[in-house]
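Worked Example 4.2. Consider the chain below.
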Amino acid sequence: MKQDGAPERIVEIYEEFIEPSSPMEVNIDSATRQVIIDKVKAKTFDLGIFDGAIDELVLLIHESVLSQFLTAQAGKKSAVPRYVVFFGVHFFISPGRDDDRFFDFP
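Applying the procedure from the previous section yields the following structure tokens:
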């Protein structure tokens, strides 16, 4: 899928987040980064160009930051179950559980 203005925005995102030593370089696998670099250099722009990077970043966030957040939330006393929505995925936090299996992943 292609859109007008997409190539310029793709290059901006690449230069800010993907390009090695960029100002806000994200932590992604070198193979994933190389695929994006090759596409940008070849000017092969499509809206899915960053899908691999997004998948890796969501997994990284899920495994580290989100897990810590959910653990902290589970430790709070509440009689009411809570839900967290993260990138469209609903996570159920069951109150009163002290172990690591307090959330259900769909």
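The first helix runs from residue 6 to 18. The beta strands are 82-86, 89-93, 103-104. Compare this with Example 4.1 before moving on.
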